[in-house]
C-alpha cells in the first residue's frame, strides 16, 4: 500500500492572486498555511490571508528578494512544514527548488527533478513522443546540405515547408516555401549553399492544451485546457489527443499534473508540440475540476479513482 499523508502545514511561495487561490484551497482542506512575501509586497493581500507569514529577502530589490531558495527552505524546516507549494510557472519549473525539497524531505507539490529536466529539454521530450508514435510535425532530423535535399523533403511531406539557414541575411534566414520552383529560386542566392533545417509548415494551426492528472496507482485522467475548451473539436480528436497525452505521462512515469500541447491543422490532424509543468488554474470553469486541490491531494498520495472504480478527478476534490 502506497503511503498517504494528510498535510498539516504548507508553505506557499507564490504571490498575488495565485497565492490567494492556493491559500483558499488549503483552508478548505484544513491545512495550516505559511506565506512568504518581500518588503515590497506589504500591500499584497496574500500574506494577510495565510495563518502565518514571513518577510524574505530583507533589504533586497523586489526581484532578488523573492528568489532566495535557501531562505524558503529554512522557513519550511523551522515551521516543520510537510510541503512547499510553488504555485505555477517559474517556481513549478525550478529544478534547484525541487531538488532542495527532496534533500530536506519536504514534499514539493510539483514534478520531480527528473521530470523538470525532461520538460525543459524540448528535444528529449520530442524524442520520447516519437518513440510512442505520437504525431510530430515532420522535419529533417539533421541539417540538410543542399537545396535538392530540401526539394526531396518538400515532395515527400508536401508543401509548404519552412527552411532555416544557418547563415545568411536575417530577413532571409527563415522562409516559408510553397513550391519546388520557389526552392529553385532560393538556390540562386549567395547563402543558398549554407546548411539548413527543414520542417513542415502548418497553415493556421490551432494551439490545443491537454491537462493530465496522474496518481501513484497508475490512474490517469485528462481534460481540455481553459483556452482550448472554447474551440470546436470533435470528441474523437479530443480523445486521440488525450490518449496520446496519457501515454506520454505514463512513459515518463509522471505522477503529478502536466500540460501537453498540440497543434491542430484545419483538416484536423494533430501534432505534439511540447510538455510542460505549468498548471492552468482557471481550468475549473469548464472542467469542473479544482486543479489546486487536486494538486495537493495527489501530492498527499491519494488515488484518482471514483466510487465506481473509474478514473475521475472529481473524487480528488
From TrEMBL:
Q: Name one GO molecular function term.
A: metal ion binding
Q: Which positions fall inside the ATP-grasp domain?
A: 126-300
Q: Where is the Biotin carboxylation domain?
A: 6-317
- Membrane-spanning ranges: none
Q: Which InterPro entries match?
A: ATP-grasp, BC-like_N, Biotin_carboxylation_dom, CPAse_ATP-bd, PreATP-grasp_dom_sf
One Pfam entry for this protein is CPSase_L_D2
Key words, A-Z: ATP-binding, Ligase, Nucleotide-binding
- SUPFAM superfamilies found in the cross-reference section: Glutathione synthetase ATP-binding domain-like (SSF56059), PreATP-grasp domain (SSF52440)
Name recorded for this polypeptide: Carbamoyl-phosphate synthase L chain, ATP binding domain
Which organism is the protein's source?
Aneurinibacillus migulanus
Lineage, opening ranks: Bacteria, Bacillati, Bacillota, Bacilli, Bacillales
